[in-house]
Design brief:
CATH architecture of the largest domain: 3-Layer(aba) Sandwich
Radius of gyration: 34 Å
CATH topology of the largest domain: Rossmann fold
Largest sheet: 6 strands, parallel
CATH class of the largest domain: Alpha Beta
Number of strands: 23
CATH superfamily of the largest domain: NAD(P)-binding Rossmann-like Domain
Number of domains: 5
Mean pLDDT: 80
Distance between the termini: 26 Å
Strand content: 15-25%
Number of helices: 23
Helix content: 25-40%
Length: 650
């Protein structure tokens, strides 16, 4: 659907609402706005362009919604800070307009949100913090990569590579089968296209100083174990507990924890001495009596040891020793009970302190952030990073104060810090203080306000200031146009969206090869799951044709997603010129290969191999599949080359 057709209603002009307005400027859409009060405009251009269409009122009021043209809007964005207000307004909008696409901003885990998405078609809930967790995760990466993200069981990485010398090979030959070019940044001049657009000339050769951003399939994450390993999988939790116990003992020994070491040493010494003193020649009997005394059974144990008067002069030493054991055992039992109760209450109340940190390890420190920090920690841990969190309310396995985390990290190395509080000034104050404590640490600071994060980042070295509202705006707008966005990446100062497609009959993608989808719309296909299959095909071959029922995941910017929505396919600009066939040419396989890449029947492409009257040119094809077709035909004995298609007069 053309983004310029229909009305788009934005309710709530805070930071996210105004960021969405800025994103929609280039789409020439008719936009109307509703807010409870006169907004604080971050940009005078927005006030001039949309101020006349602003209605002051409550977005939950049916009368206000009618005046804002919610009844005939194609999309309504409900972006207030209060999730309850947004959900209530969504119900009112659905009563007025059964067909509008609703985008509801939420920041909670209410069951109502899930139920509404299932029962009300065309309603999508978005949480800006969770959408942009991947951006913060990539800003905190310390492994030299630009970005990383997971799709199911597969991990993808984006690596930056600077060309040291003028390359003798072109862009196409520099890439492997499991690689895709995300961006080519020449040392001089501007890039040939937007990130992930695939609209650069693959025949060009990178020069010294050029930078290439390449997407690669990093590895396969943990999957279900095969049957022969099910016993090991069943025992895995117990083995994990044993490993944790061993690590705890080793960590305590390395850290020389005085309490644990002295306690274990005294207990062992008491058992050895007691077995000798109370055993009367029987080590097992002495051990049992020692354990009984340590449990506090003083009178029964002394009576067993001394049958006559325990207080007699000959028996006083043994009685005093037994009393000492009983007192020590009583304290030991009380200490164990206190530790157990503390652990049980901590688990019950959710205030359990994290385990001690081993010395010599590298960590990422996350300060505050709530749900964002929780999601960010899971993303980093999935990618094998160790995370330490600080939450003032003590939720989860987190320290309650920064001082506690700093003391825990004194024997370790802190490589990156994410300061995720709500106040920008407090975040900057904390970040600069930590930068003085740990010089060279990577810093990512949240600026959840009207501030421009990209401009603020230029004021501080080794610090990225990220405004999640600005980053999430593209995802919110794409959702308003009917896309299903699962995450956002920030590369080369551009937002790239990881988007799901379910191919349906009549869809603009039906019958297209992935080569046409990639080169025509300007995006990167990441995964395709054919109808009836459960396992997706990762970085699929470009000649695969999409059919109804297929599931597709792509990396693209907002412009490419809107091009898919509108079906505005860029035409192919290359042709394969066939000059002849060698003696060893396999004509049948060459026809099959031509038919597969050109989406024609084998009988229709045979004429391209008849070169008696001169070279033959195929129908136009996109460059990347054209180069693959050229390589395949050359191996089969066909002399051919890829040339620019003749320009037809307008």
């Amino acid at each position: 659907m053309d983004p310029r057709s229909g009305v788009i209603l934005i309710c709530g002009l805070g930071g996210l609402g105004q960021a969405c307005l800025r994103t929609l400027i280039g789409f020439e859409a008719e936009i109307h706005c509703i807010d409870q009060r006169q907004p604080r405009w971050v940009d005078a251009l927005l006030a001039d362009q949309y101020g006349a269409n602003l209605l002051i009122g409550d977005m939950r009021s049916p009368q206000v919604l009618r005046m804002g043209r919610a009844a005939d809007a194609r999309a309504v964005l409900l972006l207030s800070h209060d999730s309850a207000i947004n959900l209530e307004a969504a119900l009112q909008v659905r009563l007025l307009n059964p067909k509008a696409q609703l985008v509801v901003r939420t920041n909670s885990r209410r069951n109502l949100e899930r139920q509404l998405q299932q029962r009300l078609p065309g309603l999508a809930t978005v949480d800006p913090s969770l959408l942009t967790a991947g951006v913060f995760a990539n800003a905190l990466r310390t492994d030299g990569t630009e970005a990383a993200f997971a799709l199911g069981d597969e991990l993808f990485r984006v690596r930056s590579r600077t060309v040291q010398h003028d390359s003798a090979r072109d862009l196409f030959d520099l890439l492997g089968r499991r690689e895709r070019l995300v961006q080519w940044v020449p040392a001089e001049g501007s890039p040939g296209g937007a990130p992930a657009s695939q609209w650069w000339d693959l025949d060009d050769r990178p020069r010294s100083g050029d930078r290439l951003l390449c997407l690669e399939l990093a590895s396969t994450l943990e999957t279900r174990p095969p049957r022969r390993h099910r016993l090991r999988a069943a025992m895995a939790p117990w083995l994990h507990r044993l490993d944790n116990l061993r690590e705890m003992v080793q960590r305590s020994v390395r850290r020389r924890d005085p309490l644990l070491l002295w306690g274990c040493g005294l207990l062992l010494l008491a058992l050895i001495a007691g077995s000798s003193a109370f055993g009367s020649g029987s080590a097992m009997g002495g051990l049992l009596l020692t354990l009984a005394l340590l449990k506090g059974e003083f009178l029964d144990s002394v009576g067993f040891l001394v049958e006559d008067n325990p207080m007699a002069t000959d028996n006083l030493a043994l009685a005093y020793l037994s009393l000492l054991y009983a007192v020590v055992g009583t304290f030991l039992t009380a200490w164990l009970v206190a530790v157990i109760l503390d652990r049980l209450l901590a688990q019950r109340l959710g205030r359990r302190q994290p385990r001690p940190l081993p010395a010599g390890s590298q960590y990422v420190l996350l300060l505050e952030g709530g749900r964002l920090a929780e999601r960010l920690a899971s993303l980093l841990q999935l990618q094998k990073f160790k995370v330490v969190r600080v939450e003032p309310d003590g939720t989860g396995m987190a320290y309650t104060q920064l001082d506690q985390a700093q003391r825990a990290l004194r024997r370790s190395s802190c490589q990156a810090v994410g300061v995720l509080g709500a106040d920008l000034v407090d975040n900057l104050d904390t970040a600069l203080e930590l930068q003085e404590r740990w010089p060279g640490v990577r810093l990512a600071v949240q600026a959840q306000s009207l501030a421009d994060g990209a401009k603020l980042s230029g004021l501080f070295s080794d610090m990225q200031v990220i405004n999640p509202l600005q980053v999430a705006a593209d995802a919110v707008v794409a959702t308003a146009f009917g896309e299903r966005v699962r995450g956002v990446l920030r590369l080369a100062e551009d937002n790239l969206l990881l988007t799901d497609y379910r191919i349906e009959p009549g869809d603009t993608l039906v019958g297209l090869s992935l080569a046409a989808v990639s080169g025509g719309y300007g995006l990167i296909p990441l995964q395709v799951t054919p109808l009836g299959q459960r396992k997706p095909i990762v970085l699929p071959n470009l000649e695969r044709v999409l059919q109804p029922g297929d599931a597709l995941v792509v990396m693209a910017d907002l412009q490419a997603l809107l091009a898919v929505e509108n079906g505005t396919l860029a035409p192919p600009r290359w042709q394969l010129e066939v000059r002849g066939c060698r003696r060893n040419c396999n004509g049948f396989e060459a026809q099959v290969l031509l038919a597969r890449y050109l989406a024609q029947a084998p009988g229709e492409v045979g004429r391209y191999l008849e070169t008696a009257a001169g070279p033959q040119r195929t129908k136009p094809i996109y460059q990347a599949p054209g180069r693959l077709l050229q390589q395949g035909l050359t191996r089969l004995g066909v002399e051919c080359s890829l040339v620019a298609a003749a320009q037809t007069p307008a």
